Amino acid sequence: MYMNFWYPVIRAEDLGQTPQKVRILAHDFVVFRDDQGKPAVLADTCIHRGAALSSGKCKDDGTVQCPYHGWRFNREGVCTRIPSIGKTVKPPPRARVDAYPVEEKYGIVFAFLGDLPAEQRPPIMPVDEHGTDEWRSTLITFDVNYHYERSIENGLDPAHNEYVHTTHGYQGEREDTYLMTELRPHQNNPWGYGFLSTFDAPPLKNPIMRQFRKEGGKMEAGSGTYGPNHMWTYINFSPKTVMHQYMFEAPIDENRTRVFLLNQRNIVFFKGSKMGAIGKLIKPRINAWLDKKINERNMFIASQDIKVMNNVRPTLTPPTRAKELMMPADKVILQYRDKLDEFEARGWKLDMQSIKQAREKADVVFAIPCPARREANAWVLDEAPRMPARAATAQATLQAAGGG
């Protein structure tokens, strides 16, 4: 798992002025809105006596109040009041918790869990069509009981569609003609790789989904990544009918992942502003009904992946590529692993074994370091251990994948 990236914390509509606990990267955070309605994300451990700030309450001054002794922390993590020393005594400089940069986009509250300054931070994956008249979006969240790297790699795997998804392939009944070797590079960026491929798809039986693809035949689709936990999937049902999906994943720990699935479609009933009174009345109802059906369909597709992924072993990505026999269709998966090697070389990979051992032996609480730690040294909680920065060990991806 890697720090110094943007992680989805909570759906924006689910966050109010009541503190909530969220676990990401095997660490606990408190998320709340301040008195101005702005979201804030802090480490969830009060540095006084270890109480969970998420069990406290939000105050009118924009702070979150610890439930144990009433210490108050603002959105910058600074303690503004310690009741036991009186109103006139200023809290000491070490009275602060890690506070993380926050952005609210696409209906999601994101937190940058790391200590990089703003100009050095990797971006949140762009969704240029979000909020435009030509596109309609839906957002759902769900949890899976496996490691997020396995989840991302499943999305980068074009060959599994033929066997796992009845709407995408023919269940392996075309063994004489089935082939998956052509992956065309698409949306490559400094933080990840992507591809598009063309494959045969069966006619859609569902009458609602047939609005997207009325006939079987050639269809274009592909996926790619931004960082370790953001992934896009483009599904081009036809030249004019397109669905773009964006998955923002939050590793809860090494065995659980929370997925935020943003679905963008260019099928929108009653596009534009010209419509009669009846159109204005029924437009939101029809689109809301289709939103519901799209979400149900997405969860049905996801359930097919989940059924297989729950039984993948080993549960974590093997430490060497010699432990998996990869094929040309796995090219982008190997490129993804190359990027993870780069992130580790930068010193961004958390040392999960050391974290786990320290917690088991001494019941230690760590904090993911925030940007403010680069400006001041006096902190109560220790930083989460990281793997040392080193030279990248990525292998020759094309050779490993059997390509040229």
Task: Explain this structure.
This protein is of the alpha+beta class. The chain has two domains: 5-119, Rieske Iron-sulfur Protein, CATH 2.102.10.10; 136-331, Alpha-Beta Complex (Naphthalene 1,2-dioxygenase Alpha Subunit, Chain A, domain 1). It is built from six helices and 20 strands. The strands form five sheets. The chain has a seven-stranded antiparallel beta sheet, covered by helices on one side. Strand 6 and strand 7 form a beta hairpin. The two termini are 31 Å apart. The model is unreliable at 394-404 (pLDDT under 50).
Strand order of the largest sheet: 12-18-17-16-15-14-13
- Roughly how many Å is the radius of gyration? 23 Å
The major beta sheet can be summarized as: 7 strands, antiparallel
Mean pLDDT: 90
- H/E element string? EEEEEEEEEEEEHHEEEEEEHHHEEH
Helix content: 10-25%
Low-confidence stretches: 394-404
* Alpha plus pi helix count: 6
Number of strands: 20
Quick gist of this model?
With 404 residues, the chain is α+β, with helices and mostly antiparallel strands. Helix content is 19%, strand content 25%. Residues 394-404 have low confidence and may be disordered.
List keywords for this structure.
19% helix; alpha+beta; 404 residues; Rieske Iron-sulfur Protein; disordered C terminus; 2 domains
